[in-house]
Amino acid sequence: MSSLTDHGRNILARALCGRLPALPNAVFLGLGTGGSVASGLSGEPVGNGYARQRVVFTGTGVQQNAEAVRFTFTGAVGTLTHVGLFDAASGGNALTWSALTQSATVNGPGTVTINPGAFTITGS
User: How much is the pTM?
Assistant: First the structure.
């Protein structure tokens, strides 16, 4: 993940100042076609089986997904170029976002998989 959203920056700033931020109980990965620092991931697919997926992290410094994250589609959604992390399975707040290292074109039913350890979050 390369960019914290405004919401993610605010959580981090409160934590660094000794103020208790509202931390998410779980985080969910989404796919889309773009992103911005202010709002996070954009262009999430609607329908065709798309749903954000819960992701569990492991690591002591760099955080990485502990298990494969699978997005299953029942129909075409186009080319997905970005990934984002949210504090809810739908709606909620965007925390961070980044471009995928390789875009995924979904022209029909299928699965997009992010292998264990392939999705990382660093402090820099």
Answer: 0.86
